[in-house]
Amino acid sequence: MGVDRRGRRHHVQLLTRSSVDDARHSARRPRSGSSLTDWHVSGTVLIACNCDRGCPCNFNAPPTTGDCEGGWTWSIDTGHVDDIRLDGLTIAVFADWPGAIHDGGGQASAYIDDRAGDDEAHALARLVCGELGGPWAVFINTYELDGPHRAHIDLSLDGYVTTLTIRDIAE
To answer: Which of 9, 57, 150, 161 to pair with 170, CA 20 to 30 A apart?
Structure first.
């Protein structure tokens, strides 16, 4: 349990590899429309929000506190976009909605691991901006996205004592 910027408590949920292994997709490139992009990411996603356990938004219900503040961090064990490897990199999105996620109207910021090279950063940006499908393609319709920004991300996955620091952004 942690405390959000308004002093409210929030729960952190750690999902294991098996929870995100299904993120295997092929999607049409929005800009060209004529070729397919093959991508896959497998790893761990760390989720934190200001609601009670069980995120009501997952069930099309209103948030526990009336608004939704959430953060999702994806630690990619193995992954690629076309022939660009994403192994060992991390991306994060932090968002604030005035009501439920599915009602939209949110503001979000995205961060890409500063260890990514230019090609890797571009591939990660395409993922987090929803261009290639997956969960990001759903979320992008519910908020205005600031970024993605390169940032130093330090994630230590260790069960209940997992820590995440994005330098000067989140802890």
So the answer is: 57
User: Tokens 């976009």 — which residue?
Assistant: 81
Structure tokens at 137: 């393609």
Q: Which pTM does this prediction carry?
A: 0.78
What single-letter DSSP state applies at residue 33? S
Q: Note the pLDDT tens digit of each residue in 54-84.
A: 788 888 888 998 999 999 999 999 999 999 9
Please state the φ and ψ torsions of residue 119, each to the nearest 5 degrees: -65, -40
The answer for 67, left when phi > 0, alpha when psi is -120 to 50, beta otherwise, is beta
Estimate to the nearest angstrom the gap between the alpha carbon of 26 and the chain centroid: 19
Query: 29-36 contacts: CB < 8 A, separation 24 or more?
Result: 29/131, 30/131
Residues 6+ apart with CB under 8 A from 144: 106, 107, 108
Backbone torsions φ then ψ of 140, nearest 5 degrees = -60, -20
SS (H, E, C) 81-114: ECCEECCCCEEEEEEEECCCHHHCCEEEEEEEEC
- State the amino acid at position 81 in one-letter form: V
The closest alpha carbon to 39, from 119, 126, 154, 110, belongs to 126
Determine how many CB atoms are found less than 10 A away from the CB of residue 122.
Answer: 13
